[in-house]
Predict the 3D structure of the following.
Amino acid sequence: MIRRTNRKEMFKLLENNPQWKVVDLASSTAGWKYADVFTDVYDHSEFYKNRYNGEKKFIQCNVENTPFKDKEFDFVVASHILEHVDNPIEFCKELSRIGKRGYIEVPTPLWDNLV
């Protein structure tokens, strides 16, 4: 089911479910603190190793073809990446394949131009 929501509500959901395994796709160096695994096409492994003292993983990969198992994650975060992928349909299929639920955040013209 697709339902409109916001980042604040997703933070609450993740805070209320600390047992969930969470991946943040294409996180760059701005990953959600609730994630257990961060990914990006560029190598940010040292950044995440230093930020979380090696307690969280970083995987370098393309978001349209990840190395993860089917339904490996309880929650998938895709913040400001959908508008950059080559194949949005394949990207959405990959999110559905690796996660049980998730959150896709895309820019909005009004809000992004105001802040």
Summary: The chain has four helices and five strands. The two ends are 30 Å apart (CA to CA).
